[in-house]
């Protein structure tokens, strides 16, 4: 079965053909670790996680590489704004290194709560400075750079087709990118590869280089590290749509200039999460995090469910009301599944044909540019299907949850309470078995109840039970 992906480069949904038969190289731009990730950032990581798991579901092996931007000033393109890492350090009375470590850990903690799987390779910018220097040297050898007032710039006019990803004219790119007027640049869209003369003169994170002591430009790390870990021809590169006109455009320019050939085959971008009232901004300090959602009574998986209900290529408007709706939807789904899981007859057979029919349906949806909303429809068909027994349903639910990652096989305690009738019936049956000294049967029932998270307690007064 073919897998289709919308490729930003061609503006088309295309059949996905990996560069190497079954092993896919996937690169996703990672977090800048000077503060907590906001739920907008996390929407992008959830979409990327679902994409990776969908590819794995249909049979591919995925090598996933993600960078961690642990140098705050790499955040911006030019030399304007604030050094966010230094700002974080002074705000919290820590060193920049401590800030980076703290927020990197916090980021992966959030990912864990959202069932976002860790990438195969996580690479920090600060650990790849040597590689970045070599990369700039290569660009220098190939004639794409110039030095001006202590900094090394990439000269975009030397690179043919600089605008191909954004599909905009140079003027439109300039108008949209709010770049600071920099008299050192030949073209306002030229970008820095290496700073030695920065406005951040007391910068702590600095390294020696052939051009003097300084630090790399922001875009350099993604090109350098993705090529280092995934080779010169990468299947998929992801990120949020904000990265199209500047960051990814510059990544392409420097990578293809250094390599001398096409670099990434499929560019896949996630649309933004926006607030009812507007944009979500990490630098403003006032933004929603996973912890804030938890404080409001939502679980991280309520949020994952909320994100998965809408197409990754559509803007998603966040409000607590719509999150509440998603929470209710997710609860109702878990309740239905809980009833199935607590009523499985282990002696039932599994009809392989029925199962694979549903698996194919599921694959068709996820392979259609990640149509997760329709994949949920397939799940609901399974739940309702009168022909399938509960053992078959459980098998399929567990199988689909490899992509959804919503802990669908974990039975919630409240679901069990609903099945009190069944529990009492089993306890009754066990009491009879014990009276008849049929301990084999009574042990079987105890085990069955334990599978349902029910602990049986025997005492002089009789038998009782409780949820574990
Ligand atoms: P950052 O940590 O700012 O570099 O962003 C990490 C990722 O989140 C990038 O892929 C961004 O494109 C993405 N991103 C930033 N803001 C949003 C948003 N509001 N909604 C969805 N993704 C976003
Ligand atoms: Zn990047």
TrEMBL record:
Biological process according to GO: cysteinyl-tRNA aminoacylation
InterPro entries in the record: Cys-tRNA-ligase (IPR015803), Cys-tRNA/MSH_ligase (IPR024909), CysS_C (IPR056411), Rossmann-like_a/b/a_fold (IPR014729), tRNA-synt_1_cat_dom (IPR032678), tRNAsynth_Ia_anticodon-bd (IPR009080)
Localisation: Cytoplasm
Binding site for Zn(2+): 29, 222, 247, 251
Domain (Cysteinyl-tRNA ligase anticodon binding): residue spans on this chain: 423-466
Limits of the tRNA synthetases class I catalytic domain: 18-327
Motif 'KMSKS' region in this chain: 279-283
Manner of cofactor binding, per the entry note: Binds 1 zinc ion per subunit.
Keyword Nucleotide-binding applies: yes
Keyword Flavoprotein among record annotations: no
Catalytic activity: tRNA(Cys) + L-cysteine + ATP = L-cysteinyl-tRNA(Cys) + AMP + diphosphate
Position of sequence motif 'HIGH' region: 31-41
Binding site for ATP: 282
GO MF terms held by the record: ATP binding; cysteine-tRNA ligase activity; zinc ion binding
Enzyme Commission number(s) from the entry: 6.1.1.16
GO cellular component: a single term: cytosol
Protein family per UniProt: Belongs to the class-I aminoacyl-tRNA synthetase family.
Quaternary assembly: Monomer.
Entry-linked NCBIfam families: cysS (TIGR00435)
Protein name: Cysteine--tRNA ligase
Gene source species: Clostridium sulfidigenes
Taxonomic path: Bacteria, Bacillati, Bacillota, Clostridia, Eubacteriales
């Amino acid at each position: 079965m073919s897998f289709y992906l919308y490729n930003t480069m061609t503006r088309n949904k295309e059949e996905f053909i990996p560069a190497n038969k079954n092993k896919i190289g996937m690169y996703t731009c990672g977090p800048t670790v000077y503060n907590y990730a906001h739920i907008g950032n996390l929407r992008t990581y959830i979409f990327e996680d679902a994409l990776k798991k969908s590819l794995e579901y249909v049979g591919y092996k995925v090598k996933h590489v993600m960078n961690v931007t642990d140098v705050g000033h790499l955040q911006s393109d030019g030399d304007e704004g604030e050094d966010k890492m230094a700002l974080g350090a002074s705000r919290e009375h820590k060193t920049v290194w401590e800030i980076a470590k703290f927020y990197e850990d916090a980021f992966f903690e959030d990912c864990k709560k959202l069932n976002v799987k860790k990438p195969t390779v996580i690479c920090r910018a600060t650990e790849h400075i040597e590689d970045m220097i070599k990369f700039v040297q290569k660009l220098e050898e190939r004639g794409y750079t110039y030095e001006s007032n202590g900094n090394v710039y990439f000269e975009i006019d030397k690179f043919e087709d600089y605008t191909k990803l954004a599909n905009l004219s140079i003027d439109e790119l300039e108008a949209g990118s709010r770049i600071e007027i920099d008299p050192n640049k030949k073209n306002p869209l030229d970008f820095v590869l290496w700073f030695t003369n920065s406005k951040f003169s007391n910068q702590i994170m600095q390294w020696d280089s052939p051009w003097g002591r300084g630090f790399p430009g922001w875009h350099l790390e993604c090109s350098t590290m993705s090529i280092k870990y995934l080779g010169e021809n990468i299947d998929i590169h992801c990120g949020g749509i904000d990265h199209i006109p500047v960051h990814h455009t510059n990544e392409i320019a420097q990578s293809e200039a250094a390599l001398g050939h096409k670099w990434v085959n499929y560019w896949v971008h996630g649309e933004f999460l926006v607030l009812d009232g507007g944009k979500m901004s990490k630098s403003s300090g006032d933004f929603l995090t996973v912890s804030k959602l938890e404080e409001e009574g939502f679980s991280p998986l309520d949020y994952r469910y909320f994100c998965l209900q809408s197409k990754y290529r559509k803007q998603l408007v966040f409000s607590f009301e719509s999150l509440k709706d998603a929470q209710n939807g997710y609860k109702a789904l878990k309740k239905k599944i809980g009833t199935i899981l607590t009523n499985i007859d282990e002696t039932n057979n599994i009809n392989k044909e029925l199962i694979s029919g549903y698996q194919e349906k599921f694959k068709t949806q996820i392979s259609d540019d990640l149509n997760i909303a329709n994949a949920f429809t397939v799940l609901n068909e399974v739940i309702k299907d009168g022909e399938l027994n509960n053992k078959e349903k459980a098998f399929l639910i567990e199988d689909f949850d490899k992509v959804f990652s919503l802990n669908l096989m974990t039975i919630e305690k409240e679901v069990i309470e609903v099945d009190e009738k069944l529990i009492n019936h089993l306890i009754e049956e066990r009491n009879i078995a014990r009276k008849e000294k049929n301990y084999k049967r009574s042990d079987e029932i105890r085990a069955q109840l334990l599978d349902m998270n029910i602990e049986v307690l025997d005492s002089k007064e009789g038998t009782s039970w409780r949820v574990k």
